[in-house]
């Protein structure tokens, strides 16, 4: 775009960050973030939310929290993205600490992956539930 003398705006940055997430182009996404800061687009709420989603896709919780805390104006998308990322981080930590996930854990986290449209994580959780027998636990 810049070679064609077009000035990328906030919508362009949001699109680039979304594409970077889908293509797993982390370095390009970080470059888009740096560009947005240089061009003073990073304070745009759409860009902020796209950055939060980008960090969330790569489980960079500390970067997500730092950006969230620096953001003066937040909306429900900002909050949902951070809550979703923290849920994922807590789930990983719970598993790492040797805690067994139960039916309640699974029904608490599946909506998070549904909201994020994270089909692979949702399928992984579903497979885990079947493999461990949690899916057939109806005692709750």
UniProtKB/TrEMBL annotation:
GO terms for molecular function: RNA binding. InterPro entries: PPR_At4g14850-like_plant, TPR-like_helical_dom_sf. Gene3D superfamilies: Tetratricopeptide repeat domain. One of its GO terms (biological process) is RNA modification. This is Pentatricopeptide repeat-containing protein. It comes from Quercus suber.
């Amino acid at each position: 775009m810049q070679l064609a003398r077009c000035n990328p705006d906030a919508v362009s940055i949001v699109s680039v960050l979304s594409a970077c997430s889908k293509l797993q182009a982390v370095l390009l996404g970080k470059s888009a973030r740096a560009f947005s800061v240089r061009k003073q687009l990073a304070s745009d709420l759409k860009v902020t939310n796209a950055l939060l989603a980008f960090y969330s896709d790569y489980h960079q919780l500390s970067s997500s929290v730092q950006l969230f805390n620096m953001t003066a104006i937040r909306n429900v998308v900002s909050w949902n993205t951070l809550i979703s990322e923290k849920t994922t981080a807590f789930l990983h930590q719970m598993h790492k600490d040797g805690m067994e996930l139960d039916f309640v854990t699974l029904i608490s986290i599946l909506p998070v992956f549904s909201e994020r449209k994270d089909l692979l994580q949702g399928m992984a959780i579903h497979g885990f539930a079947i493999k461990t027998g949690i899916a057939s636990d109806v005692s709750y």
